[in-house]
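Re: [ENG-882] Designed sequences occasionally contain unexpected residues at chain ends

Forwarding the minimal case from QA. Structure tokens:
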């Protein structure tokens, strides 16, 4: 894929490829895995601040940037984010296997077979956002609750990476794949609750390469990124 900018009808895989083409060279030279994780958390927390202050612009801009940093984590670890998201959420809740989710209504019994209906995998990033809106209807929770859930998943992703880097076991790496998929679901949970079209926001910010310098690969240095305000 020769991608230099994100379009509204592009897929999650195409966005991840754009992030690879744009940031892999500077990321490999300047950033450790922990640096990538910290920057993802940094902008995600700014998006949550947008929720607290009722600032939708701050929310959607920083959430889009945090999402891009999460893609760079996927690229560093050679994880196909779209593939793992679909594996975890095949048009159904990852726990009760239903769409809409029925976790709060009934607990899944051990040995009970799933009643999940087979559906076609979403093609675009927008399709994935729509899918998560069906699995987890936004009217069932407040925007604040969606934000708290995202914060929980950020912590669980960090914990999974910490454990893997300590022992490098296969099951620990699998946990990272699961947590990345959960992170994606919660990002769309926030955007659906805030009525934000993530594909539109990404197409505005990443219309050509880096969101700041608009180069492929990115030409921003470590110091500049560390001081970047959003």
């Amino acid at each position: 894929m020769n991608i230099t900018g994100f379009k509204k009808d592009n897929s999650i895989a195409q966005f991840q490829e754009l992030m690879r083409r744009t940031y892999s060279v500077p990321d490999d030279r300047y950033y450790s895995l922990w640096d990538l994780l910290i920057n993802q958390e940094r902008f995600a927390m700014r998006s949550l601040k947008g929720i607290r202050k009722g600032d939708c612009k701050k929310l959607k801009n920083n959430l889009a940037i945090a999402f891009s940093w999460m893609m760079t984590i996927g690229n560093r670890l050679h994880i196909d984010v779209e593939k793992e998201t679909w594996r975890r959420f095949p048009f159904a809740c990852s726990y009760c296997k239903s769409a809409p989710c029925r976790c709060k209504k009934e607990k899944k019994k051990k040995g009970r077979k799933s009643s999940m209906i087979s559906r076609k995998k979403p093609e675009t990033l927008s399709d994935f956002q729509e899918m998560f809106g069906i699995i987890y209807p936004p009217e069932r929770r407040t925007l604040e609750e969606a934000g708290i859930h995202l914060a929980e998943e950020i912590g669980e992703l960090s914990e999974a990476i910490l454990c893997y880097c300590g022992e490098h076991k296969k099951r620990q790496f699998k946990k990272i794949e699961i947590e990345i998929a959960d992170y994606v679901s919660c990002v769309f949970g926030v955007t659906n609750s805030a009525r934000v079209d993530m594909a539109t926001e990404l197409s505005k910010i990443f219309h050509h390469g880096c969101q700041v310098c608009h180069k492929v690969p990115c030409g921003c240095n470590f110091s500049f990124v560390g001081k970047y305000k959003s």
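QA comment: On inspection the terminal residues look reasonable. The mean pLDDT is 94. Proposing we downgrade this to a documentation issue.
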